[in-house]
Amino acid sequence: MLATRYWLPPDISSHGSAIDNLIAYLHVFMAILFVGWGIFFIYCLIKFRARAGHLARYDDVKAKPSKYAEVLVVAIEAVLLVGISMPVWASYRNEPPKDDPLIVRMVAQQFAWNIHYPGPDGKFGRTEPKLVNEISNPIGLDRDGDPAAADDVVSINNFHVPKGRDVVVRLSSKDVIHSFAVPLLRVKQDVIPGMEIPVWFKAVKSNDEVREAMTTTVALPTSEADIEPFAHKHRGDVFMGDFGQGAAGQPLAARGGWVTKETIAALVQAKVVEVAVAPKDPVNIQCAQLCGLGHYRMLGQMQILEPDAFTQWLESQTGGAEEFIDDE
Amino acid sequence: MSTTATEVLPHTLTPHPVTGMYNGKFGLWLFLASEIMLFGALFSSYVLLRVHGAFPHHGEHSLSVKIGTINTMILITSSVTMVLAWAAFKLNEPGKGRMFLAATALLAIAFLVIKLTLEYQHKYHEGIRPDTSTFYAIYYCMTGLHGLHIVGGVIVIGYFLLPGFGMWKTNPEQYINRIECTGLYWHFVDLVWIFLFPVFYLL
Amino acid sequence: MSSDHGHHHEPGFIRKYLFSVDHKVIGVQYAVTSLVFLFIGFSLMMIMRWQLAYPSAPIPFIGGWLASAVQGVVDKTGTLLPEGYNALGAMHGTIMVFLGVVPLAVGGFGNYVMPLQIGAPDMAFPRLNMASYWVFLPGGIIMLASFFVPGGAANSGWTAYPPLSVTANVTGTNPFWNGQTMWLLGMIFLITSSLLGSVNFIVTIVHLRVKGLQLFRMPFFVWAQFVTAFLLLLAFPPLEAAGVMQLMDRVFDTSFFMPSGLVVSGQLQEYSGGGSPLLWQHLFWFLAHPEVYVLILPAIGIVGEVIANNTRKPLWGYRVLVYSIIFLGFMSFVVWAHHMFLTGMGTTLSTFFQTTTMIISVPSVVILTAFLLSLYGAAIRFTVPMLFAIAFLPMFAIGGLTGLPLGLSASDIHLHDTYYVIGHFHYVVAPGTIMALFAGIYYWFPKVTGRKMNDFLGKLHFWPTLIFMNAVFMPMFFVGLQGVSRRLWDQTSYVTGNETHNWVKMSSWGAWMLGLSQLPFIINFFYSAFAGKKVAANPWAATTLEWAAPSPPPHGNFPEVPVVYRGPYEYSVPGSRQDYSPQHVPDAKLA
Amino acid sequence: MASSAEEVKRSIKTYMFVFGALAVLTVVTVAAASLKIGVAAGIALALLIASVKGTLVASYFMHLIHERTVLYWILGLCAVFFVAMILLPVMQTSETAHLMDPIYQATGETPPTHAPSPAHVAPAAGAHGGH
Hints:
The complex is a heterotetramer. Chain A is an alpha+beta fold. Helix content of chain A is 29%, strand content 21%. Chain A has helices at 16-47, 64-94, 207-213, 227-233, 261-269, 307-316, and strands at 102-109, 112-117, 153-156, 158-162, 166-173, 178-182, 187-191, 197-202, 216-219, 237-239, 274-279, 284-287, 300-305. A five-stranded mixed β-sheet of chain A has the order 3-2-1-5-8, with no helix packed on it. A five-stranded mixed β-sheet of chain A has the order 4-13-12-6-7. A three-stranded antiparallel β-sheet of chain A has the order 9-11-10, with no helix packed on it. The longest helix of chain A has 32 residues, at 16-47. The two termini of chain A are 21 Å apart. By secondary structure, chain B is an all-alpha fold. Chain B has a domain at 65-203: Four Helix Bundle (Hemerythrin (Met), subunit A), CATH 1.20.120. Chain B contains six helices and no strands. In chain B, helix 1 packs antiparallel against helix 4 (134-161), helix 1 (23-51) runs parallel beside helix 6 (172-202) and helix 2 (65-90) runs antiparallel to helix 6 (172-202). Chain B is globular. Helices cover 62% and strands 1% of the residues of chain C. The longest helix of chain C has 36 residues, at 82-117. Chain C starts with 12 loop residues before the first helix and ends in a 57-residue tail after the last strand. In chain C, 68% of the residues are buried. The interface between A and C is large, with 102 and 103 residues.
């Protein structure tokens, strides 16, 4: 199970706690109202059921308490609206980070996320719809015509960002409406073709840390028949430790290795009872707006790296597109 | 006789004390309210597309102000003949009333002919179609929808002028009511054009 | 009886049942048609739920048939295709909203009951009424027929957001012969039908009330229909305009909603460009938010009727209720963009729309409170319609309350377009509205047929329905809180989607069990229509005017035009010799 | 409401007067469009004249000034929603279009124009020039 606070997924952003708190307060408020109504409701259903000798009252009940309750509801809603929602929204929308943010362009398409880094010169090269080639140049970057484009980095479906630094994402779309959603970062923004819309966040945990936090201990299947469903269910997971012992003393499943049918079968055979696993890529990018038949597979991965590792990664990219392959 | 329940329905002819209207007229006004929202949505689209920068302002488009002005005059005149037709029936002058109705229908047809030949056809020959630019898209959309309203009006007016005129003899009061309702609709169509004209031809 | 009016002769079968102008026949036509559509819409969802619970597994029982019968829904093995899933989703939404709930609540109940409740012999424009139905039906048939054209039915969601809806479903050579275009044409028919109907409703309610029935003596259901008619009248035309524009985008290659320079599947699109995808969303939600209230207001009206009748006391705060729904109706026109917080809305507009959204929640709270207070001091009869009506209250409460986190833009960031949204609005329209519609069917069935529905079967219908409704929709909140996007063909490749997959399975099993739970209703419906217990004109001892007419009411409704002496819910009046004082009975006869 | 013959006759005079006013205003609005008074003022003037004409048609031809308040309320409601429908979407899209401004300021880019490229626009600009 995920470490859930208020039944929400883990929050790894700097701004997410305000959103989480609002959701939590709202649900507490809703629960109190619902339980209050419910008690009164059940009481009435029992107390005022039709039975011999019981007559209904014609005159209206004077309902002072209900008026107070309604006023209270209005007051609480007003407080949540003015006190939390509006300020959070204002900072989400109007206050782009000033402290040397990493600015990237994200070009959504059916059904992939193209991430465009400006490279060392800090300038985005020009893009032209005419130059788009789905294989070699998905965003139509003018590498020949624009000198600023020469050092640009384009990455597909793998969104590398440094931990602890503000990131501004300039969202645009090549074709239809998409929605850039990263639940763990509490970020969601529709991507509207024909315009650029910015969104920003700061990740406070790296992928490694998130994976660590998401590690769960699961019982291995006991019967042969359950191995395949188990492996299927955990197909995106890696082992978070060494498990089992092979003939040469090597672990049957090594830390960081994929959960596969074969490893599970070997572990089951070696009578290993439980293993610790976690998702290989714990921070997913989803598309939250129906964008066509491949909407469900518009899955991107955030690669949140320590600042040094990020710099290293960026330097290693010489401008070619990197394809992310979803291991099954 | 008809087996509908209409004959026993209240306020088919007499005005309701609160609204001051008979059923048909009240219904027609409600219909016009929904028409306001229909054309309102299209005007809203026009404004949004224009503010959004989908097309530049007038000067780069080639709609003929002359033809637009002529058509405006035709519609205004047809509105007057329509209201005069109603007044004539009200004054029990059916001959005059039919004459004005015929005039209205003819003016409407003239409007349509000018629209279709001098504007749409001409433009099409020039290669200007709805997909030429967003300006022409909304131009064809709004004027086309308005044109369809005119066609509907011509059909209704033609009906009351010829086959439906029999009602004048059997139930003149109801006939006058129908003419009044037709008139309301017709004036509304005119009113829409009064806004369409500056929006597309002048601004 | 009706022959009192003189020259009535019996119309033939076609005039009597097919092209009837009698509001009662039209009401029944609407009701039966929409029940069929509800069943179809529900079936689509049961198919989708198989794919969600068991991704990529062939659909049992009907997979093979689907493969041979319909285009682009399943593959050869009978597994639901992603585009088929999208098509089913789009059509489920469209059918449920536009062909199921609205025609049943407004076309069916409104048409049948409202004229009776105001003592009118018919609707103000009987032929227009007939026309509404005969425009509605082709609209529905066009929608359904789109499953069988090349490329299959519309698959861009019931919201049909462009550019997707403009670029999707373009496989055919004929610009009209494809799912999305047929969807648009069908919508234009349905909208026209609703407009005709709403004009008729308003004129009828304003002009055709009998003597003594002042506005504030009208049954609450009539008020609900009145407000609903205004919503339909003023909110639908913008969607009609938008539909025409999208049709032009699809058929004439205009670009109302198409920005310049789109590259779809590697192809640079040859549109003139300059259009705005947001324009569609504004026009769509300008209709679709009031549409939510079109779905819920008649349901609230039915619940009001049933509660008053079965608590045997006046509805608490009748005037407050009336003012609340009028206010709801008005406000529903200025909250629409809370569906669009994440389209790039700035602070000014989000402040406006979240404030109006919070304001609109207040009358809903007032309505619920009034209904709850109506139970206090009552003598509650737990009849079958009452069971459904009281179940509506907590279900509507959940649906309404879960709207709050979505209506505040900050919490909407996390919850927008997740399963939380689906849970929220389904609680309003499925356990909410559908429960109320069932209450209405059980309540007015004796009026329509002269026979009562079976109580035992009714209870056998009620309890499983209540339980499984919650089994379907409650898990969606937990899935949604985890941030799982909606409309995913397979959510298990996402970390949070995989974690919450057991909830999804629970929803699916709930849905199939819910389907089974409808069997007693279907049996009861047909059995009781022909062989149910015969009852008198007023079996529930109710006060409103529809019960003053014989069951079923003859042509022209009332043998004698009634006169109204009092408000709608005069139950348990002190000094009266029975516990209900019908609106049309003078005081002298009650003492 | 014009009901008696006398009143109808009197209102015919009104109709002719209104007709004259409408014709004159049409000429005025065409003439005003050729004045060089700036885009905003031009739009305001043309819409003002159109509103006057519309009011004349509604008030006299459609007898709106003789109707009861009920109808005014309904049309008033209509007008409120009409205004909301025109203003709010425009405000929203304009706001959205400026969300990027602070980012452009930071990067020193010039914001792109939202207008379509000239080739797409109008035949007068040369793309479809047939005249």
